[in-house]
Design goal:
InterPro entries: Kinesin-like_fam, Kinesin_motor_dom, Kinesin_motor_dom_sf, P-loop_NTPase. By secondary structure, this protein is of the alpha+beta class. The protein has 5 helices and 7 strands; from the N terminus they run βαββββααααββ. A 3-stranded antiparallel β-sheet has the order 2-3-4, with no helix packed on it. It has a two-stranded parallel sheet with strand order 1-5.
């Protein structure tokens, strides 16, 4: 990640082919707060020069003489106060471009407990009770996609939606749309194809 990566406004619409790397910093949980000897965090988000822009630089202070402090640049950084709405708003334009024929991939990466499920899905209670304010990226993207298709349908165009929902866990692939829980179902078989596509079956 080079230092020349420019700050991106939350209202900006990037080109369809753009790959963006975004960081979301979650707040400390109760266990972590009890273990902390001081209130100071080792991770500090450097504010953007323009308040209208999202931060793009993250400073990591290890606090150990043998470890060098580091700084990292990203396309955007969401702090601990960022809402689900804020996070999805940054990538909403990419989802809308799917209706225009562009591919869109949103990939969440991080250690266990870093908040990937919260960001991508939101709390289970928000899905059951319809609390849209806590919805994560996936339910917001599905809702937004069908809203876009509804608008396109008003112009006489038709659409076909195909959905698969899978989880890769310990190098095994599971179908999350099955009625049985993941622990009660065998993993899917991944078969290699001549055209370098490996769909699970």
């Amino acid at each position: 990640m080079g230092d020349k990566r420019a700050a991106v406004s939350s209202d900006a619409t990037p080109p369809p082919e753009c790959v963006r790397v975004v960081v979301r910093v979650r707040p400390s949980n109760e266990r972590e707060r009890k273990l902390q000897a001081a209130d100071e965090s080792v991770v500090a988000i450097r504010p953007a020069t323009d308040p209208a822009d999202l931060p793009t630089r993250l400073d990591v202070k290890c606090g150990q003489p043998s470890v060098v402090d580091s700084s990292f640049n990203y396309d955007a950084i969401f702090g601990t106060n960022a809402s689900q709405h804020d996070v999805y708003g940054y990538m909403q334009s990419s989802v809308e471009q799917v209706v225009q024929g562009f591919n869109c991939t949103i990939f969440a990466y991080g250690q266990t407990g870093t908040g990937k499920t919260h960001t991508m899905m939101g709390p289970d209670s928000s899905l059951r009770q319809g609390d849209m304010s806590q919805w994560g990226v996936i339910p917001r993207a599905v809702d937004g996609l069908f809203q876009e298709l509804k608008a396109v349908g008003g112009c006489g165009a038709g659409a076909f939606v195909h959905c698969s929902y899978m989880q890769i866990y310990n190098n095994q692939v599971f179908d999350l749309l099955q009625s049985s829980s993941m622990k009660d179902q065998p993993p899917l078989q991944v078969r290699e194809m001549i055209k370098v596509q490996c769909p699970p079956t």
